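lol forgot to send this yesterday, sorry. struct tokens for the thing we talked abt
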């Protein structure tokens, strides 16, 4: 099974990924979830980034709020693609973390998604799209996902999971 590593700056970020954590297995993808902070546990974050290829990880997703350096620090230590999800914590509700993740310097990209639950759910789909370039079985699931959304004109996780089978 292709593997995604999801690193979150705090376990308080985890509830936003509720739909994403249902989508990955429905798309045939194994996800490894780790809590590690660029600021509170910098050594652990470094080890997760550098150890990922040896664990069979092919895409890394980093979610963090506030001064959200997690995705950028991970991207600094790996050549795996890194997707950033800005977490919408007060008082700036994700605008701060969006800028921290998106405004990376030349040479170290982070594919930054929408702040909050939109980005969290879309991180599952974007990681699947990246893996689908290599794993044809994921292509069929993603095509089916498009059909389900077309039929429902909505993204409701229960309908998506039922449609993916
Ligand atoms: C960030 O600070 C985390 O990613 C989280 O979004 C935010 C608050 O973390 P906690 O104080 O709830 O652990 O580093």
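and heres what i got for the seq, position by position
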């Amino acid at each position: 099974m292709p593997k995604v590593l999801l690193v979150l700056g705090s376990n308080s970020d985890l509830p936003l990924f509720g739909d994403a954590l249902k989508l990955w297995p429905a798309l045939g993808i194994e996800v490894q979830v780790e809590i590690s902070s660029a600021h509170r546990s910098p050594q652990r974050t470094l080890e997760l980034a550098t150890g990922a290829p040896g664990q069979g990880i092919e895409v890394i997703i980093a979610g963090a709020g506030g001064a959200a350096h997690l995705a950028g620090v991970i991207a600094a230590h790996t050549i795996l693609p890194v997707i950033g999800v800005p977490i919408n914590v007060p008082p700036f509700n994700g605008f701060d973390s969006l800028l921290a993740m998106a405004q990376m310097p030349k040479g170290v990209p982070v594919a930054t998604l929408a702040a909050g639950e939109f980005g969290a759910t879309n991180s599952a789909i974007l990681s699947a799209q990246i893996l689908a370039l290599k794993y044809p079985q994921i292509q069929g699931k993603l095509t089916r996902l498009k059909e389900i959304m077309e039929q429902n004109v909505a993204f409701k996780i229960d309908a998506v999971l039922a449609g993916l089978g």
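The chain has one domain: 3-138. anyway ping me if u want another try
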